[in-house]
Known about the structure:
Helices cover 23% and strands 28% of the residues. The chain is an alpha+beta fold. It has one domain: M1 Pyruvate Kinase, Domain 3 (Beta Barrel). A hairpin with a 2-residue loop joins strand 5 and strand 6.
Amino acid sequence: MGYVASVNIAVVRTGSWTGRVGRSGIDKRPSDEPVKFTESGVLGDTVCDAKHHGAWYQAAYAFDTEDLAHWSREIGRELVPGNAGENLSMSGCDVSNAVVGERWRIGSVVLRVTGPRNPCSVFAGFWDVKGLVKRFTAHGRPGAYLAVEEPGVVSAGDTLEVLSRPEHGVRVSDVFALCMQRRKELAERVAPVLPNLPEKWRQQVVKAM
């Protein structure tokens, strides 16, 4: 069973690495204390770009420590929990292959998988890696955004329990492959997930088909 390696919250930074001189909450650091998750987000975290982040279906973001290790090897620099901008650094979970709509209990919180994270220039600037968006997209393991169905508290070391899993079987990585890798041959496979997607993302998926 997978578990939480680290719970991370933002340290707001200002700098040109964002692609412009501005503020960003992508730099997240492990918390030594239990962290409260609410329907509107992670307590103590900060969303600076409300246009692209912070919707109810982006209340939290999870990424695998195994993928952090992969990218550490790829870019020749050690990445630690929080470096992908994730609130939950998960171990042994295979977050990117979770089924969209899957419900998790972690600590006292119930979370629902809503879809993939799409890489952006701020992410590439934070890692200071040219071509990172293209490389991250090609790798196809984006991590997962989560909605909070039942607020509560999460601590490092909490295990992940899958409460339910939709029968459609469409994974986060499938949606990412269709929309970001332009793999239109996946359109038929991904179609059953449409009712489970937030309206904004549903429109994007339909457009990619």
